[in-house]
């Protein structure tokens, strides 16, 4: 199956929207219940600490830049322990995808269409997730690019419309919350905001085209998502007050219901619902995609698409049984989820880094060495032992070698000289022992050879000279020892021959 690649800009957008997810809807109540009017302070500290967590994720990704998180577990921890941790990660991903479908159903039934069962909303939304998974990560990333401007536009409209209802006295007194309450509110917010970003290691950096830009995008997406979250929490405290915010199930939606401009622009809380649906779509897909891809990689299945529909039905069933009530969901997100997410978002990456350092597993391949004898060796290889040598000399007989290989033991050499007798050879090979030689000279007796071969022993030679006695020959072969020669001369006795042989 052909590998799918996304751009660093698309990865940044996915990071931004995935970090918001359900946090934009339920986090204000969770934070305000502990930190009260200081919830905005807890939100700012949580976003800053989340950048350290992103640094951890990036460091883990750089250890195995071509592997997903599931594959990295198996490579670093070994086949047995790697599969155990990967199974736990996949289980948590699918469980979270089912819980997000539950949130969609319960929110739409509670706030928008109370007469419609939650199963109907979860089923319709699961169709979107399954279809997006069938199309692949590239199509999903493009859809995120399309939805991103709408999200930003709705957010700006929401902030502008709710600003007239702000009451600054709701933030007073400042810094009254005890340190313990502030700490727990920070942990709960990070468990919803930044801990779930560990699922992005399933596409970072293995699926992103430019790794350096993707690292910056990881930070930028997290910061922008944090700014959105801080704004929502602060506005909820300013408009609703800390007590009212803590008592609401979906305080940000209640906040949007307070919008009233000129007594004619009212009841536009659907814009808040649209913004939340965009972000939860991104987050639900990433959990589901991480689970399906992880199962396919553990079971060594090259094509993951046959697994999409069965597991789509599984998360649909989970959405109906995972929480018997909204109270159970609230307790789970306050007490149980932070522990589960801490294990896979902080503890497991730290263990992977420690073991990778002990086993000396890193993303840098090859050794770069330089010596004082005008010799430079470079090796860059994906398979086997490939070497590249470069040397330069000013003596009569100088040789420079340059090699690039993707397989086996292949050597490429090139030499350059300014003296009488010089030879330059340049070789490029993809198979056994193929060579390519090129030489260039300005003296009387010069020979230039150019060879390109994909077989074991195939050589092509071409030479040109402007002096009296010159011979030019070119040979091309597709089999063992066929030859083709062409020679031309401007002097009296110069042979010219042309042969083609198959």
UniProtKB/TrEMBL annotation:
- Describe its membrane topology: Multi-pass membrane protein
The protein's predominant localisation is membrane
Q: Where is the composition biased (Low complexity)?
A: 376-489
Q: Which UniProt keywords apply?
A: Germination, Membrane, Transmembrane, Transmembrane helix, Transport
Residue ranges of the region described as Disordered: 365-502
The cross-references to InterPro entries, in alphabetical order and at most eight, read: Spore_GerAB (IPR004761)
Location relative to the cell: Membrane
- The answer to whether keyword Methyltransferase applies is no
For this record, the Gene Ontology CC terms, alphabetical, are: membrane
Q: Which domain of life is it from?
A: Bacteria
Task: Spell out the Polar residues composition-biased ranges.
Answer: 365-375, 490-502
TM regions (residue ranges)? 12-33, 39-60, 80-107, 119-140, 147-166, 186-205, 217-240, 273-295, 307-327, 339-356
Question: Which GO BP terms apply?
Answer: spore germination
Family label: Belongs to the amino acid-polyamine-organocation (APC) superfamily. Spore germination protein (SGP) (TC 2.A.3.9) family.
Q: Which NCBIfam families match?
A: 2A0309 (TIGR00912)
Q: What is this protein called?
A: Uncharacterized protein
